[in-house]
Design brief:
Distance between the termini: 58 Å
Radius of gyration: 24 Å
Number of strands: 4
Structural class: mainly alpha
Order of helices and strands: HHHEEHHHHHEHHEHHHH
Strand content: under 5%
Largest sheet: 2 strands, antiparallel
Helix content: 55-70%
C-alpha cells in the first residue's frame, strides 16, 4: 500500500527553500555592492606610512561598527594561536583591557575564514574580513533550518514552513544578519526566541493526560514536554552566554507567561484531557543553570575565572535555578495547590529567594569591581548608545 501524500511536508520543504533562496539572493546582491564600493576606495598615501596601519580590503555596511571589533578580535586570536580572546590592546591605550565577550562569534568567523583559506589559498587571518561578509547570512540560514525543523516536529510542516519564511523576512533579523553585519545581536535574539518557542512547545506547564496527546496538539504528553523544557533552558543558556543583558528580560517574560498560563488553566482538567505540570519549570531551570555553568567553563576555564557580572557567571545559574523552583511553586499555588508545606518546604523556598537575590546584591555591593557598567562613563555610554540598555 502506498503512503498518503504529506501536504504538510511539502509546505515545510517549500517554505525552507523559499527562505534560503531569498536569503542567498539578498546576500549575493549586498556583497556585490560592497565589493563595488571597495574597488573604488583607496587609502591616502600618508596613512600607509603610519606603523600598524593597514588598509582593509572589505567595505562593510555603515551600521556594522561592532563588526570591525569582532574582526579585530578574531584576527588577534589567530595571530596569537589561542582559541579565546581575553585581552585587547586596541583601546584603553597604552594598557589595553580585558575582553569578556562570548567567543562564539569569534569561533564562527575563524571557522569561515579557515574555509575561505582552504577554498582560495588566502591566509586565514586575511580571510577574516571576507568571513565577516558571510557570517550573518550563514548564521540566519542555520537558525531558519533549526527552527523550521523543530516547529515542524511539534506543530506540523505548515507551521515549520511559515516559521522559515517569517525568520527570513523579518526586518529586525535582516538588520542583525545582513551581509557584513558580523555581530552578536542576531545570535542572542534567536536564542531568546528559541527559548520562548520551546517553552510554548512544552505546553508552558501543562501536559496531556497519558494516551490523550496528539501530534500538533496544544499541549504534549509529559515526556515530550520535559524534552522541550530542557531545550528551552539550553537555548536560554546559550543566549545568556552571548549577552546576559539581552536575554535576562526574556527569562522574566517567560516566567510571567508561565504564571498567567497557570492562572488561565485553573479548572481546565474538568473539561479537557490535560493537567497542570508546574514541576516542568524545574527542568527548565535545571537545564538552563547547567548550560550556563557549562558555557562559563567553556569561556573561562581553566585560568580566567573571575567576578565579571555584566556577562555570564555562575551566579546567573544559581539565580535561574532558584527562580525556576519559585516559579514551579507559584504555578502550583495559582492552580489551586500549596506554595510550600511544612518547615522543610518553607526552608527550601527561603533558600530559593536567597539564590535569586544573591546576584543583584553582588552587583549592588560589588560596584565597579564586579559590575563594570556601574562606572559613570560606561553607564552613560551604555544607556545612551547601546540598544540592549535602552528598553
Amino acid at each position: 500500500m502506498s503512503r498518503p501524500f504529506r501536504y504538510d511536508r511539502l509546505f515545510l520543504i517549500l517554505g525552507v527553500l523559499l527562505a534560503l533562496g531569498f536569503l542567498s539572493a539578498q546576500a549575493v546582491n549586498r556583497i556585490e555592492y560592497y565589493r563595488f564600493a571597495a574597488a573604488k576606495s583607496t587609502m591616502p598615501a600618508e596613512l600607509k606610512n603610519i606603523p600598524g596601519v593597514h588598509p582593509r580590503e572589505v567595505v562593510l555596511p555603515i551600521s556594522s561598527v561592532d563588526s570591525n571589533w569582532w574582526i579585530m578580535h578574531t584576527e588577534a586570536m589567530l595571530r596569537a594561536g589561542d582559541w579565546r580572546v581575553r585581552t585587547t590592546e586596541r583601546d584603553n591605550a597604552p594598557l589595553g583591557r580585558e575582553v569578556h565577550w562570548s567567543s562564539g562569534l569569534v569561533w564562527i568567523l575563524a571557522g569561515l575564514a579557515w574555509l575561505i583559506h582552504i577554498a582560495s589559498g588566502m591566509g586565514t587571518e586575511a580571510s577574516v574580513q571576507q568571513a565577516a561578509l558571510l557570517a550573518g547570512p550563514f548564521m540566519l540560514m542555520g537558525f531558519v533550518l533549526l527552527f523550521a525543523w523543530a516547529t515542524a516536529r511539534r506543530w506540523g510542516g505548515a507551521v515549520g514552513g511559515f516559521i522559515a519564511l517569517a525568520l527570513a523576512t523579518l526586518a529586525p533579523l535582516d538588520a542583525f544578519f545582513c551581509a557584513g553585519e558580523a555581530d552578536h545581536h542576531g545570535m542572542v535574539t534567536c536564542f531568546a526566541l528559541g527559548s520562548v518557542l520551546a517553552a510554548m512547545a512544552a505546553g508552558a506547564g501543562r501536559v496531556a493526560l497519558p494516551g490523550c496527546g496528539v501530534a500538533g496538539g496544544a499541549v504534549p504528553e509529559r515526556a515530550a514536554a520535559r524534552k522541550w523544557m530542557i531545550a528551552s533552558g539550553l537555548l536560554g543558556a546559550a543566549g545568556l552566554w552571548v549577552s546576559a543583558a539581552t536575554v535576562v528580560p526574556a527569562f522574566a517574560g517567560i516566567a510571567l507567561g508561565a504564571a498567567v498560563a497557570a492562572w488561565r488553566g485553573r479548572g481546565l482538567a474538568e473539561d479537557t484531557d490535560t493537567e497542570a505540570a508546574p514541576e516542568l519549570w524545574r527542568w527548565w531551570g535545571a537545564a538552563g543553570a547547567a548550560g550556563s555553568v557549562a558555557f562559563y567553563l567553556l569561556e573561562y576555564a581553566p585560568s580566567h575565572f573571575g567576578w565579571r557580572l555584566e556577562v555570564n557567571h555562575p551566579l546567573y545559574a544559581l539565580a535561574w535555578l532558584g527562580g525556576a523552583e519559585l516559579l514551579a511553586r507559584l504555578c502550583r499555588r495559582v492552580g489551586g495547590g500549596v506554595f510550600a508545606s511544612g518547615a522543610r518546604g518553607w526552608a527550601v523556598s527561603g533558600a530559593c529567594v536567597l539564590a535569586v537575590l544573591v546576584l543583584p546584591a553582588a552587583v549592588k555591593l560589588g560596584g565597579v569591581a564586579l559590575f563594570a557598567v556601574q562606572d559613570n562613563f560606561l553607564w552613560n555610554l551604555h544607556e545612551g548608545y547601546i540598544l540592549e540598555f535602552r528598553s
